[in-house]
Specification:
This protein is of the alpha+beta class. The chain is 55% helix and 13% strand. A 7-stranded mixed β-sheet has the order 2-1-3-7-6-5-4, sandwiched between helices. It is rod-shaped, with a radius of gyration of 34 Å. It starts with a helix and ends with a helix. The model is unreliable at 1-6, 8-36 and 222-226 (pLDDT under 50).
Length: 374
């Protein structure tokens, strides 16, 4: 029970992630001197504690220390080039296909098992703050975290300007009992950290959808029709939700595999906690699917309202055209210039014709207004 509480305290420092307050999390790209340029941190952990060293370790030195005295090495890299990653890949015997995916990025979330390692791809999601949603607003920004899990090593390769794991590393270092479980504990912590980020983004996106929905179905619309909502805004939000969906949906199967199928590289005490991650991920997936369907309905409703507004305008134009047709017809009749038109020489002809015209126009106007055309 103590380990359960410690595990949840490390990977979930608070019950609710406030994305709107902390959306500007920056990525610390400070690199230790003497290490490859892509390496952000390289450390050896033994018995749940970071092994102190007088100088920063290179990946080769860290692995040699692990093979001699035990423990595991955790290396963090940020957007390495093929040349920068080649030495590390050779040192740890990483599969060439996984190495290629890690360098090129833009991969789909997945879990791949090789002989001596697991390769996991996570899509990180960052909510982009904006004062008001527009047709060009960026709502979510994506990055990637790729993890190589071995018996005595854990390597993270990150792409994108957000999604730093430095704070997570510090929290894990503050919990030796958990960190002593090895690389699989780090993998779980990263998975839970990423999924908690999804939950926070889902809450923020829900606020944007609520805002658009309120505008579309606002009770203060003129004539019962919303005229102030640009369908491009709804479509842009739908595109951003689709980007969110691409990050969440493919990850569900890997999390289920990690929680249900025994794996040689995953500690049995840690494996059951992947079920919690999979449950949270399933909830987020349901939310995102609901967002997509709701935005479809909002977009269709907005387009229908636009059609109704156009029809209303056309009815008003038609109504006024019907009113104007009466004097147009009268003027047309008396503008034919016939010689024998008795009304032309009648003393009261002009006022009578004008009076009849006005009465007809007022009668048509009243009828159309009573029927809702004006």
């Amino acid at each position: 029970m103590s380990m359960i509480r410690d595990l949840r305290a490390v990977v979930r420092p608070s019950s609710r992630v406030s994305l709107r307050k902390d959306a500007g999390t920056s990525y610390d790209t400070t690199r230790d001197p003497g290490t490859p340029s892509a390496v952000v941190d390289c450390a050896v952990y033994r018995d749940g504690a970071r092994v102190p060293t007088p100088t920063p370790l290179t990946p080769h030195e860290a692995m040699r220390l692990v093979r001699r005295d035990g423990g595991f090495v955790w290396i963090g890299l940020h957007e390495p080039t093929e040349a920068e990653f080649a030495g590390i890949a050779g040192e740890f015997g990483l599969h060439p296909l996984a190495v290629e995916d890690a360098v090129q990025a833009h991969q789909r979330p997945k879990l791949e098992r090789y002989d001596d390692s697991l390769f996991t791809v996570f899509k990180t999601i960052h909510y982009v703050e904006h004062d008001r949603l527009t047709a060009n607003s960026e709502v979510v920004e994506t990055g990637e975290v790729m993890c190589f899990t071995g018996r005595d090593f854990f390597i993270t390769v990150r792409h994108g300007g957000q999604g730093s794991l430095r704070a997570l590393r510090r929290r894990l270092q503050d919990d030796p009992e958990l960190l002593a479980k090895g690389p699989s504990a780090v993998l779980h912590a990263i998975a839970d950290h990423v999924v908690d980020g999804y939950i926070a983004v889902a809450d923020a996106v829900q606020d944007d959808i609520d805002e658009v929905e309120t505008e579309v179905f606002s009770p203060g619309r003129k004539g019962g029709v919303s005229r102030g909502v640009d369908s491009a805004r709804i479509y842009q939000l739908k595109r951003e939700v689709l980007e969110f969906k691409r990050a969440v949906a493919p990850l569900l199967r890997p999390m289920q595999l990690l929680s249900e199928r025994p794996m040689r590289l995953i500690d049995p005490d840690i494996q059951k906690y992947f079920r919690d991650v999979a449950d949270h991920l399933a909830r987020v997936q349901e939310q995102v699917m609901g967002f997509d369907e709701l935005l479809n309905s909002i977009l269709q409703a907005n387009l229908a309202q636009a059609s109704v507004a156009q029809n209303e305008d056309m009815r008003k134009i038609t109504a006024w055209a019907a009113i104007i047709a009466v004097p147009t017809m009268v003027c047309g009749v008396y503008g034919m210039n016939f010689d024998h038109m008795p009304e032309l020489h009648w003393k009261y002809g002009y006022p009578v014709i004008m009076g009849v015209t006005v009465v007809l126009c007022l009668g048509i106007h009243r009828t159309l207004k009573r029927n809702g055309w004006l």
